[in-house]
């Protein structure tokens, strides 16, 4: 069990760390190739959208052939995508590799498939803790790999750093080997065939999910999570600069969020084992709304920015363990990667919205104030929308 968890955490850390490093390449690649910053940014934004759209498809594939096989395929796509980024001689080709190829790669070898595989392979008493560890590992990967990528750019140049990263992506292949959750072969006995016939198909599970209030509450709640995460990740350094604080404060704020998210994810994983998941999500989103309100009204000093970042880091991806657990509780384990992949699509749509809307509001008004107000109200909405979710003691029964 320990090897399974360590490999899952390692794969999630490497996948997240590599994808979060791409922003470091904007300045050197645009300068070297004569590209526009908006052209580079569009390729990365396209990656987020393709990730969201392809995530349910990769989840469905993982449910059918096993998460290990999909993660290995994703690792190969990671390598090809990063290699293509390094060798692209024009922005259209770069957009193809960075946006389309990497978007699918991030879905196949990303956190939802890894979390679903770990959840299926572990006993229920350990699932929340393992999901918390996996989420914490993703943040630790961001905290560790991003600086290494920066050193690589300084030491080998942007192209050399990308080539090293392409090779590092293949380390996900051995890490995926223990995640062997491939469905069992069809039963040969009459009793086994009868039990298999009674099991839900993917279509039946999805129809049940789409008719369920709980599914849509999770979807729109995760939309808010994505909106918050992308707004802060993309615009918090710019907001800090607009407050006339030193540039290192913005960089430090993002680093603190990643560091404290390790603790937040671990705490959330433990609480998912002990609390009702619905109430935990309500508390997380309500806490985000309160924290953003206090920060919005407080004087903007180095101390308040760093304090806000540390507390927000605890709340950052702490939504993941209870959300995965509620998907499993309400819709079962068989098609978990598919269902969670669809919920994750809501997160990525919210992520695109948060990044784009923050920039649009700042361009139109010269201030982030309206975006902070929208984020606060979105946090209140997310806290309320989780209240109707069914949090049964066992997965919902399959309808006759």
Q: Can you put this structure into words, describing what you see?
A:
This protein has 400 residues and is an all-alpha fold. The chain has helices at 2-19, 26-33, 37-65, 67-87, 91-108, 111-121, 124-169, 172-176, 190-198, 202-210, 213-242, 247-274, 277-297, 302-315, 320-331, 336-365, 369-385. Helix 1 packs across helix 7 (124-169) and helix 13 runs antiparallel to helix 17 (369-385). The chain starts with a helix and ends in a 15-residue tail after the last helix.
What descriptors fit this protein?
400 residues, mainly alpha, disordered C terminus
Helix-strand blueprint:
Blueprint: H1 2-19, H2 26-33, H3 37-65, H4 67-87, H5 91-108, H6 111-121, H7 124-169, H8 172-176, H9 190-198, H10 202-210, H11 213-242, H12 247-274, H13 277-297, H14 302-315, H15 320-331, H16 336-365, H17 369-385
Helix pairs in contact: 1-6, 1-7, 3-4, 3-5, 3-16, 4-5, 4-6, 4-7, 6-7, 6-16, 7-12, 7-15, 11-12, 11-15, 11-16, 11-17, 12-14, 12-15, 13-14, 13-15, 13-17
């Amino acid at each position: 069990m320990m090897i399974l968890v360590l490999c899952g955490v390692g794969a999630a850390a490497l996948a997240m760390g590599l994808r979060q490093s791409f922003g470091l390449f904007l300045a050197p690649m645009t300068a070297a190739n004569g590209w526009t910053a908006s052209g580079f940014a569009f390729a990365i934004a396209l990656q987020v959208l393709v990730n969201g759209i392809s995530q349910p498809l990769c989840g469905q594939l993982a449910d059918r052939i096993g998460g290990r096989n999909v993660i290995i395929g994703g690792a190969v796509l990671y390598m090809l995508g990063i290699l293509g980024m390094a060798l692209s001689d024009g922005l259209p080709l770069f957009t193809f590799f960075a946006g389309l190829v990497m978007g699918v790669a991030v879905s196949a070898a990303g956190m939802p498939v890894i979390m679903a595989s770990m959840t299926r392979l572990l006993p229920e008493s350990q699932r929340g803790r393992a999901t918390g560890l996996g989420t914490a590992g993703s943040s630790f990967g961001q905290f560790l790999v991003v600086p290494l990528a920066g050193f690589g750019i300084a030491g080998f140049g942007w192209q050399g750093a990308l080539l090293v990263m392409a090779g590092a992506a293949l380390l996900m292949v051995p890490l995926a080997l223990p995640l062997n959750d491939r469905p069992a072969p069809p039963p040969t006995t009459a009793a086994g065939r009868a039990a298999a016939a009674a099991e839900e198909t993917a279509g039946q599970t999805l129809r049940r999910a789409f008719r369920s209030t709980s599914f849509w509450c999770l979807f729109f709640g995760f939309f808010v999570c994505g909106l918050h995460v992308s707004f802060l990740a993309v615009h918090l350094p710019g907001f800090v600069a607009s407050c006339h604080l030193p540039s290192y404060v913005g960089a430090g704020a993002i680093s603190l969020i990643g560091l404290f998210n390790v603790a937040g994810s671990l705490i959330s994983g433990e609480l998912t084992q002990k609390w009702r998941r619905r109430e935990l999500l309500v508390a997380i989103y309500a806490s985000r709304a309160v924290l953003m309100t206090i920060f919005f009204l407080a004087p903007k000093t180095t101390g308040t920015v760093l304090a806000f970042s540390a507390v927000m880091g605890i709340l950052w991806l702490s939504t993941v363990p209870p959300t995965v657990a509620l998907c499993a509780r309400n819709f079962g384990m068989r098609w978990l990667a598919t269902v969670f992949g669809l919920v994750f699509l809501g997160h990525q749509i919210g992520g695109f919205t948060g990044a784009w809307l923050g920039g649009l509001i700042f361009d139109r008004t010269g201030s982030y104030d309206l975006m902070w107000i929208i984020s606060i109200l979105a946090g209140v909405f997310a806290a309320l929308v989780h209240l109707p979710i069914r949090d049964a003691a066992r997965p919902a029964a399959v309808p006759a």
